[in-house]
Design a protein that fits this description.
Blueprint lengths: L2 H9 L4 H20 L8 H9 L4 H11 L3 E5 L6 H6 L2 E5 L8 H4 L9 H11 L4 H5 L2 E5 L3 H10 L6 E4 L7 H22 L5 H24 L9 H10 L5 H20 L11 E6 L8 H7 L4 E6 L4 H4 L10 H13 L10 H13 L4 E7 L3 H16 L4 E6 L6 H15 L1
Parallel strand pairs: 1-2, 1-3, 3-4, 5-6, 5-7, 7-8
Helix pairs in contact: 3-12, 10-16, 11-13, 14-19, 17-18
This protein binds iron/sulfur cluster (2 copies).
One iron/sulfur cluster binds next to helix 7, helix 9 and helix 18.
Length: 425
Amino acid sequence: MSEEHVSMWKHLGLNLTAHDALLKVLGDAYTDIYLAQKQRPDGMAYFDFVMSEVHGLRIKELLDEKEQGRKIIGSYCVFVPEEITLAANATLVGLCSGADFAMEEVEKYLPRNTCALIKSALGFKLGKVCPYLESADMVVGENTCDGKKKAYESLGPLLDNLYVMDLPQVKSDQGRTLLRSEYERFKVAVQDLTSVTITHESLKKAIQTVNAKRMALHRLARLRKADPVPISGLDALLANQVSFYDNPARFTESLNKICDELEKRIAANQGVSPKKNPRILMAGCPMAVPNWKLPWIVETSGAVIVGEESCVGERGIRNLTDDTGTTVDELMDAITDRYFKVDCAIFTPNSDRLNHIEEMAKDYQADGVIHYGLQFCQPYTMEAIPVENALDTKGIPSLRIETDYGMEDAGQLKTRIEAFIEMLK
Ligand code: SF4
Ligand code: SF4
């Protein structure tokens, strides 16, 4: 790592020893899981580079943007509209954390039986290892599940810039009204932060930029419907994960290049996994970097993942925002309508999600569904039961997995997953 990077991290107040340890774990996992794959598309070299510089060049870019007066906003959830931040000349970065860190410290703030994702978010702050978090001029917390809501009460005093957004839990007219007013309040807060007034033109342009990114991800998703599938689930997951950190225009261009390559592979009947290997749809909790454990186990056990029903996947990107409104208010309405369709398990009832999983299993020609719930995540582990029942009535085999970020259960998971895959064959 360059001296310039080290001095940048020092300047951000990172704990350099702990940060080195994190980069080592990240680098080793990436080599063992990603670089060990065979027949990866050449275009994935872009994502390899992005990951090798995820705490380096990308942070430098963000700090350069800050020097030029641009603000950085961090978010933990796909309900925070990137359109609004871009329209006010701010950059949105995902902060969702996918690794355990500073757990002893974390458990002074949160009970042990809190989901790994929430613990990780707090651990990255307490361990001072996340340059995105330390670069952010505003961090947005959202009232989704109870765990996150209460954790923001502990995180707030550790940050000087936490903004809490309320969210509905029911898809009713009142729920939509709440979301609309919270997005309005967020728009005002972002304008205050950036001193930039959002105009019809800037909001429309921002919507188009984010739509283009989502369309490239839709294109990737569509190409995974081919049999044999031209890209691994691990690589497709990585593209979705990087979409939360990268410059949106550059990301869109790079992903579209990979899609061009995948189209050629499909035309040549070239796949990453033999046709006989079962096709798996993953459904459930989001997988943030570097949470690659489960897909890695699945894809080294004789199956291939063809889709993710997840916020780092189709739940997060599936709908576009209508950009035809002629006023800021109309565009804000369209943004509300788009996000109100996100079928997170915090909603009750949430039958849309059950229908969507069934639809995805059919569309992606999945032989089976693996439902991934993070241990202690009530919304998703509870919803896993109706999901399993709904799939059962349609004759779609499924497997319910509950796990965390540790590797202790990797052997046991592999045994269960191999048995499931064998059964699908
Ligand atoms: S699962 Fe729910 S709380 Fe988590 S990122 Fe998605 S929408 Fe937000
Ligand atoms: S994984 Fe579950 S418990 Fe954890 S933050 Fe997401 S919804 Fe909340």
